[in-house]
Structure formats: structure tokens, C-alpha cells
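As a warm-up, study this chain.
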Amino acid sequence: MARLTRPFFLLLCLSLLHFSSCRPPRTRKAVSARHSDAAADEEDVKSQLERLWHEVNSLKEMQALQTVCLRGIKANRKCYLTIEEPKHYHEANEDCIAQGGTLATPRDLMENNELRDYAKRSAPASKDFWIGVADIVKEGQYVDVNSMPISFFNWDRSKKQPTGTKRESCVVLSVVAQGKWSDEVCRSLKKYICEYVIP
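Now compare it with the structure written out below.
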């Protein structure tokens, strides 16, 4: 009887060994599940960090904008800031862009008058300022600094503005002419007004 149990025992052991080698061990599944959970957690942390990074950058932009608004004026969901160091038109626009804005572009008479009044107060000795209007690309077709067509104009008709010459392609707002516009040579050195949109 003892002889029968020994082969039976060996057969049972071999069967168990074969059965256990055919089935993957539970620990591999657990490790694999833990690994996929860790990868999901890592992706979640990455997306949260990215969202926080965007929020921090937005807050920095808002803080910079508020600083500009404190130095300039706030009107119609925009801030304006006069820059008293004269530059030619393209340099002036690049400087405004570097500060997070563009050259100011009045969209109606109210904005134009606010710019005129602000320019008078902030730089009383100055007579005109670059604004974000030009017909550099096509003569007589005035666009803003984003190449969008302009629908509001405030030309100084007493001086027959715009003159329509190809040399004079950039626009100034004249304080002495009560906010009227004139076209000028873009290489002329002028003070300018930057515009910042408030989100």
C-alpha cells in the first residue's frame, strides 16, 4: 500500500507542478496592475502640473497687466500707456508687443478721445503719437497691427489727410489737432501709445 501512495504522491506533485506552470502567478498580475496604476497616477500628476503651470502664467500676465494699468489708464476693457522715448513706427510696435500689448488702435470716437485726453495729460509737451494704423501693404487700405481692416477713421481733413503718398504709410494721433489723424513717414521718430486688452 505504501508503494501505491508514493507513485500517487509523485503523480500528484507532477500534476500540481504542471498546473502551476501553465497558469501565470497572481503576483505578476498584481505587479502589472500596480504598474498600470502608477503610470495612470503619473499621467494625472503631469496633467495637474501642466494646468497649474498655465494658471501661474496667467496670473503673471494679469499682474503685469495690472502694473501697466496702474502706470497708464484703464478704459473700455483696455489699458493704455504712453511711451515718451521716440521711436520709428516698427520699433514702437515691437516695443509694445514685447510688453504684452500692441500699438493703440482706437475703434470709435470715444476711444479716440480718451486716447487724446490721456496723451495730453501724460505727455503735455508732445504733439503727436504713433497709433496702430497703417497702409504699408496696400496704399489706401488701412489696417491695424494685426492686419485687420480699420472701420473707424478720424482724419484731419483741414490738412487734407491722408495725403495718399506711398512714403507716408503710418498714422499718428495729433494732440494739437484735437485727436485727429495724419499719415506720416514710418521712419519718423515719435512717441507712442501702447494698448493692452484686459481679459
